[in-house]
Each structure stands twice: as C-alpha cells, then as structure tokens.
Specification:
heterotrimer, A alpha/beta, B alpha+beta, C alpha+beta, B: alpha+beta, Beta Polymerase, domain 2, Cytochrome-c3 Hydrogenase, chain B, five-stranded mixed β-sheet, four-stranded mixed β-sheet, globular, C: alpha+beta, four-stranded antiparallel β-sheet, two-stranded antiparallel ribbon
Chain lengths: ~180, ~575, ~170
C-alpha cells in the first residue's frame, strides 16, 4: 500500500519545493511505486519519453519507481494514447488486474484529452472517456493525475508522479479572465 | 497505331526501363489505356480495371520495379467512381509509375497480391475502409475491429465521423466479461512493455524451441487519421502527420508537405530544404540510437542499452534546440518551415556531432565485441534477397539483404542532392546485417548534417504565396529511419481531399513471418525488432505449442529471458 | 578477447549522467515550446487561433451574453501555430511544462469578451474589442451594417435589397 497524503504549498516550483523540503519528500515516499506502462494506441512519442525517464538521464529508480511487466504487480498505470477502439477490451482488463488502490497517470495530450485524435471514429478520446467505460465495467480507479504535453517531457512525468503522490500541490489552476478593454 | 505509341513513349519515358515497361503495357492492353501523361518523375497511366492485372502480369518481373503504395479514394461525388492509385517505383531511374484505375461502385478488381505480395494489405485495407471488392483472393478484416458493421465504410465521403460514432459503439461490457473467461491459459501480462511499446501481436507457432510459422495480428493503433485529415486545413495536417509516429514523426510531416508541394507545384526556398534535411537526419540518429539500445536490451546486454540512451539524450537536446520540441518537432508547413536555424546554433550542432561520433564509435566497438551479442545477431532471422525483392521491402531491412534501395538517392528530395553520402548495404540478410546497416547510417547522417550546415544558403524559409487547386495528385516520399515513407495526396480547395499514408513498417511487417521461420524462440523478439517496427509492435507473442496444442500468452520480454536463462 | 570490458573505462570517464531534477532546474533549452499564454489585454477575440489549432484545443463560443475563448491545455499539442497566426500577437509560447493536476478543470484557461449585439435580432455575434480593432484598422470606412448586424441577418438584408432592386419595388 502506498502512503498517499496531501501536502506541500502551492506556488512553489517542483525544484523549490523539493529543495526546501527534501526530508519531507522522502518521509512521504514511504514505499516504492511500481509502475506499469499501458499504451492505448499512442504515437510512441510519450512511450519513448517514459522509457527515457527509466534510462540514465532521468533515472526514476532514484525514487524507487520501478517498471514492472504486469499490472498485477503495479501501483500505478502510466497510460498513454487516446484509447483506440481496438484496444478498449485489453485496456479495461489491464486496469482491472491492478490491485487497489489503483492509481493512473494519464500522460500526454492524447491520454488527457484525446489529443489531435479526440474526435475520430477509431478512438475514444483519452482517459476521461475511458473512465466512463471503466465505471460501467465496475472498475474503480482511486486517483488520477493528468499530465499534459505532446509528448510529455521526462521531467513532466516526474512532476506528475510527485503530484500524484501528494508531494506537492499542482500549479495549474483554472483561470477565467475578462478581456481588458484597451 | 504502333508508330503513334512510339512517339508517345519517347515523350513520356525517363529511361530504357520505363520505355520497355510502357511499350509492353501499350502492346498488351493499348485499348484499355484511357490516358497517359507525365509530370516530373511521375508517369501516370489511366487504365481500365479489367486490364490492370494483364498489364502488371507482363511487367512484374522487371527487376527494378517495386510496389510503393496503393491509394484508394472515393471520387463518386466528382466522377461517380472510386479510384485506385497503384504507385510503383523504378529505382534505377527514380521514376514513379502510377496506375490510376477507375472502379465503379460494386465492380470488382482483380487482385495482384500474387504478383506483388506487398499488395495484400493494401487490398484488404481498401476493402475495409472503402468497400472495394477484389477478385481471386480471400478477404478478411485487417484494419477495423471484427465486430465492425458490414457495409459501413469509414472513408466513404457520405459518412461523417459523427455518424460513424453513432453506428459503431464497441460492445464494451460484453467484451470485458468475455475476456474474463479463462478457458485457455492466458496470463494478463503485457501486451505492453515500455522497452517495446505498443499493442500489436504476433502469433508464433512453435515446435519445441523452433518457430515454424508466424502470423501478425495488428492494427491496434488504427486511429482514423486519414478520415480526420479530410476535415482539416492544409497547414493543420502536418501536425497530424507528425503524430502518426512519435519516433519518426518529422518524416511523415515532410512527406505530406512534399506531396502537397508536388501536387500544387509550390516552389520551396532552398533554405527550407536544408533545414528539413538537417532535422530529418537528426531524427534518424535519435531513432537508430533508440533502436540499437532496445536491440541490445533484447539481447540481454543492458549496459549497452543504457549507454545508447545516454548518448541519445544529447541528440534529443539538440533536436529541441533546433526545433523547439524534443519530439514531434512541429516546424513543417506547406511551402517551407516555420523555424529557422540561427547562425549561433551552428557551433553547438557541430560540437554535439563531434561528441556523438566519438562516443557512438566507442559504444559500437564495445557492444559488437561482446561475444553473446555477436553470436545472437549472426545468422538469425535471415531474409533472402529474393524475398526482400518480392515483398517490395524498404529501408535498412532491404539494405541488409543486399539491395541498395534508398529514397534519398533514388528519388532525391529536399537538399540531399547537395551532399555526398554512402548507402550502406550488407548482403547477409541476417540480424547482424540489419544492425550494421543502421550503425553505418548513423555515421553517414552525422557527416550529412556537417555538410549541410556548412553549405546552408540564406534567404527565406517559406514560400510566400501558393494557390490550392482541386483534384491534383501529389506524391511525397522520404527515407525514414525504418525505410521509405510515402504519402499520396489528392488536393482540394481547403485541405486534402484524400490523403494516403504508407509507413515503412506496413511493407516490412509482411515479411517478418519469413524471417521468423526456423529461428529459435529466443531469437524471435530480436528478429521482429530487427525491422524496427514503427508501431514497435513487438511486445507480445501468442505461443501456440503445436505438440500440446495449448495456448499461452507471454510478453515478448519473458520469452527472451526464459531462453536466455537456459543458455 | 576482453574488449567489452572497455565499457568500464567509458563509464568511469562519463561519471554520473543522471540529472538531479527535481532537485535542480530542468533540462530546457531556450527554444522549448511549452504552454501558451493569452494576453487578455491584447486579445480581441477574432478566433484566428481557433481556426488553425490542429487539435482544437482552442475554441471560441457564445456563453450567454459573453463570448469566451477557451484554451484546454490537456489537448494542446504545443505546436505554437496559434502564436504564429495571431494578428494581435496576443499569444506567447511560454516554457511552462509542469502542468500535472488531478482536476481536469484546472487545465482550462478562459478569456471572456463582452459582446456586440445584432441590431436586428439582438443576438450577440462578435466582441466589442474586435469591432474596435476593425474600425481602427480600416479607418472608420466600414459600412455600418458590417459591425452592427450579425452575418445571418446581414444575409437576409442583402437578399431583400437585391430582391427589391430586381422587382423594382422600393423596399426602404
């Protein structure tokens, strides 16, 4: 089981936060997070970046994040791609196979909002659409974090994991402003 | 009549091969040829459907001829007909031979899959997406799911995306429960492994440890791109094209813009050509390094994998510096590029390339001297030259089997005619040959970039104005890291009327079963990976043991490890 | 024979390649394209960006009496075409990529424009700032109908005018 808790302050960048609260970060990261990489028909862009965070430059094994070959062993699914209709069955099955708490990191503009494919006959349009199907199939997901990017930078994935684990508050906020008359 | 033809043939042909082919076609089915024309390197023959096969039967043995792509298009709104465009390449002349075949609704076309084996999938796809029927072959679903409604063809113009979504709703719940039935031993691992991403399947039939046959079951990543593009504008499609593949996206956008530029006769500034070529080569280096890393990983040499990726990261940073993004560069527009390469970046490029050349050489020297790596690459997954030709294969796959087919040389584009480079060819046809082709290409690419950077002319980077015209045919081909990418575009006023994409893996995958026959199960993953599948589709194989008849599914990684553990 | 051991010396020479991120700044070059920023002062709500946006992450539409330009970061492909076409240079491409969040709603940026209502049907059809900008650019030489009547009513109006001319009955 993962220790997931909220914490951290808004308005801090990841690096500032981490530097200020190095110890806190590591106390919160009580257990290693094992991840399973689920490609639902993406273009490979995010997938090679996922692979990139596992290789020397960004090496997330620093944080105990380990890639596993089966969703049964995973705490977290790295979901890339807009969910093509041919993969739906397998995707649902893979998520279902994961033990609770089920965590999902929806990666890239495809995973978050269907990307450039959000409105074609052959895709669902990203995780929000898939979530409805998962609900219908009785598969509950405990926490989702959306990580935009096309493709997501390796650093953005690391940041996303930190948000997911509650190490810091996300910076993104809904912004609604009036166009100022000039 | 024959003297008329000879004059026409003189006008149209671009060398003795195209001359021979044209006169043969006119000789055997002159009455069925509706029109003949040539524009630049494209010779177009409009021919009646009933005579296409006869014409091809007479020329398919011609040595330099290979099938590049077949594009099917719904032009009923204009001429009341479907059209098939068969694009053949004549390598030695750099000529494209296009057969335009009008097909009435409900009419059948004779298959050519026995003459050009590569046409198998094209015909199935034309049937899936447009409902064109073919005589003399078995039809089955290729691209669309098995439960897709009969008589619903997504690329037909009368159906909109909204209607398609309404008419096909995947049976999710029943499918989930159906998958839950554990009648066969299926372990729900995979089908995804990040070393070899993407949900594609191969079924391997094994006797003991030997693979006796293989079948590819795929098109999991069919995203309806071509339909989507029909609702987009000219300058939006490059970004869509780039997302066909996240590894070699720039080749797709370049190929698309070249097709449009070809169709509309747009003059692209020289500087834009240079920038495109530089970025294409940067992409090739990153892709080959990625592939080499993954291949070494599959061979169990993880040290090499990590070092390949360490070196690759420098290329990624360089790509971001040149284009603004690590991947999916987003600088191609019809008529030029969006982003210039400033002078002050050139020293940085050269410096990176120098480091790269040195470090890559060290890595390859060491990796290729590891006895296990050498032993498992040599003599496995052999693809004979004859088969490579019969399947119209492309890229390092065909160059590892002794055929020097390279779009950069044969049908030169962008700024490649300014630089001198070798096309590495190995004749053994095994996994080692394909690996060495890629290794040599990295060094060639480094040298190409260095030459281009030194020669780069000044001037604008984008054509000022261009006018769209309806129904012009354009062909754009680019040598991707994995082989030739070819796009066929039929233009319209605001965006493409029909856009046909053919990725290199489309051709190369069809030959994988041949490579797999007779290899040890342990070498199967590497053999599949050796074509560098663009969907990196190799992550899971269904093993059907012919002796016991049981079916089990394993991630390809596990197969690789299991046998490695024994040996 | 033991040539492959040379890798050890390479590893020693290279040392640690791993970036310390998040404990140091990310590896972002000056050219990197991240999230876009829309300047609410410069934006006039013309919608040029929404027409070029390949994934339709930028949309513009009526919401009651307002016209809202919506930017959905979650679908943005960071191509920068909007900044490339924006006639007002209101859109800039920032280097921000740390966008992860657990609420989809957080990924929306909206710019709200006050509207001009059609003189005939009363429907809001364009933004106040757009009208001002058009007036400024073409020096008040626009036919007044263009800026006060919505496209649909304008069509009807023109049809009626032509009709009256053809039939020869003075309409107005």
């Amino acid at each position: 089981m993962l220790a997931v808790s909220d914490g951290g302050k808004p308005d801090l960048t990841m690096s500032e936060f981490a530097l200020n609260k190095l110890e806190e970060v590591f106390t919160k990261l009580k257990r290693s997070v094992w991840v399973f990489h689920l490609n639902t028909g993406s273009c490979n862009g995010c997938d090679i970046e996922v692979l990139d965070v596992l290789t020397p430059y960004f090496d997330v094994e620093r944080f105990g994040i380990k890639l596993v070959g089966s969703p049964r062993h995973a705490d977290l699914i790295l979901l890339t791609g807009p969910v093509t209709i041919k993969t739906i069955g397998k995707v649902v099955r893979a998520v279902k196979a994961m033990p609770r708490p089920r965590l999902v990191l929806a990666l890239g503009s495809c995973g978050v909002g269907g990307g450039i494919w959000f409105n074609t006959y052959a895709t669902l349009g990203g995780y929000p659409q898939l979530e409805k199907i998962l609900k219908d199939a009785g598969v509950e997901v405990d926490r989702v974090v959306y990580v935009p990017g096309c493709p997501v930078r390796p650093e953005a994935i690391i940041y996303g994991v930190a948000v997911l684990l509650g190490l810091l508050q996300p910076k993104s906020k809904h912004r609604r402003v009036s166009a100022v008359e000039g | 009549m024959s003297h008329d033809y000879s004059k026409l043939i003189d006008e149209l042909s671009r060398g003795h091969r195209s001359r021979a082919i044209l006169s043969k076609i006119l000789e055997v089915c002159g009455d069925s040829v509706l029109d003949l024309s040539r524009r630049n390197i494209v010779i177009k023959i409009v021919i009646k459907a009933k005579c296409l096969r006869t014409a091809l039967e007479n020329i398919y043995k011609e040595h330099d001829l290979y099938l590049r792509t077949i594009a099917a298009s719904d032009e009923r709104s204009r001429e009341g007909l479907f059209k098939l465009y068969y694009v053949f390449g004549i390598d030695s002349e750099g000529t494209n031979l296009v057969f335009e075949v009008p097909v009435a609704e409900g009419a059948k076309v004779d298959t050519i899959s026995d003459l050009f084996r590569a046409s198998d999938w094209y015909e199935l796809e034309a049937h899936d997406l447009l409902g064109i029927e073919f005589n003399g072959r078995q039809m089955s679903r290729l691209v669309l799911p098995e439960d897709w409604p009969e008589n619903l063809y997504p690329l037909r113009k009368e159906v909109s995306v909204e209607e398609l979504k309404k008419m096909y709703q995947p049976q999710l719940i029943s499918r989930v429960s159906e998958l839950g039935v554990e009648e066969v031993v299926r372990i729900p691992v995979g089908p995804y492994h990040p070393a070899l991403h993407e949900p594609e399947y191969f079924e391997l039939y094994v006797r003991g440890e030997k693979v006796v046959d293989a079948r590819y079951v795929g098109f999991m990543v069919h995203r309806g791109i071509e339909k989507l593009a029909e609702s987009m504008k000219y300058d939006q499609v490059p970004f869509l094209a780039e997302r066909i593949c996240g590894i070699c996206g720039f080749v797709h956008s370049t190929s698309y813009v070249q097709a449009v530029e070809d169709a509309l006769g747009i003059e692209v500034p020289e500087r834009a050509h240079f920038i495109r070529s530089i970025v294409l080569e940067v992409e090739r280096i990153h892709s080959h390094l990625l592939w080499l890393g993954v291949a070494l990983h599959l061979l169990g040499y993880d040290t090499g994998f990590m070092h390949a990726w360490r070196i690759r990261e420098k290329v990624m940073v360089l790509a971001e510096l040149l284009t603004g993004s690590r991947k999916t560069y987003g600088i191609d527009l019809v008529g030029g590029v969006k982003k210039d390469i400033d002078k002050d970046k050139i020293p940085r490029i050269k410096e990176t390339l120098n480091v790269l050349r040195k470090e890559f050489k060290e890595l390859v020297d060491v990796a290729m001297s590891v006895p296990q790596v050498k032993a498992r690459l040599t003599g496995t997954g052999v693809l004979p030259r004859g088969e490579a030709r019969a399947y119209s294969l492309v890229g390092p796959t065909v160059r590892g089997s002794g055929i020097a087919r390279d779009v950069r040389k044969d049908y030169t584009y962008a700024a490649y005619h300014y630089v001198s480079f070798k096309v590495p060819v190995y004749t053994e046809g095994d996994n080692l040959a394909r690996t060495l082709v890629r290794v040599d290409e990295v060094f060639e690419s480094i040298s190409i970039i260095e030459q281009l950077v030194d020669m780069m002319p000044g001037g604008p980077i984008k054509a000022e104005r261009w006018e769209p015209q309806p129904m012009r045919l354009g062909i754009g081909a680019v040598e991707a890291p994995r082989g030739e990418v070819i796009h066929v575009v039929l233009t319209d006023l605001y965006g493409p009327y029909r856009w046909r994409v053919r990725a290199p893996t489309y051709q190369n995958l069809q030959a994988v079963p041949i490579m797999l026959k007779g290899v040890d199960l342990a070498d199967a993953p590497l053999t599949i990976a050796s074509i560098d599948p663009c969907f990196s589709c190799t992550d899971r194989a269904v093993i059907i043991n012919l002796r016991s008849g049981s079916v089990k599914t394993l991630p390809i990684e596990v197969i690789s490890r299991r046998v490695r553990g024994n040996g | 024979m033991v040539k492959f051991l040379k890798m050890l010396s390479i590893s020693v020479r290279e040392g640690t390649a791993t970036r310390k991120y998040p404990f140091e700044s990310p590896l972002v070059t000056p050219e990197f394209r991240g999230k876009i920023e829309i300047d609410p002062v410069k934006c006039v709500g013309c919608g040029a960006c929404t027409r070029i946006c390949p994934p339709k992450a930028l949309t513009i539409g009526n919401e009651g009496d307002e016209i809202v330009l919506k930017y959905f970061e979650g679908r943005c492909i960071f191509c920068g075409m909007c900044a490339y076409v924006c006639p007002q240079k209101a859109i800039t491409v920032s280097k921000e990529f740390e966008l992860a969040t657990w609420e989809l709603g957080d990924l929306y940026d909206e710019v709200v424009h006050t509207t001009v209502k059609c003189r005939i049907c009363g429907k809001p059809f364009t933004t106040v700032k757009f009208v001002k900008e058009v007036e400024k650019r073409i020096d008040n030489k626009v036919p007044e109908d263009l800026l006060t009547v919505c496209p649909e009513c304008r069509k009807k109006l023109t049809a009626r005018k032509i009709g009256s001319k053809v039939v020869g009955v003075s309409g107005e």
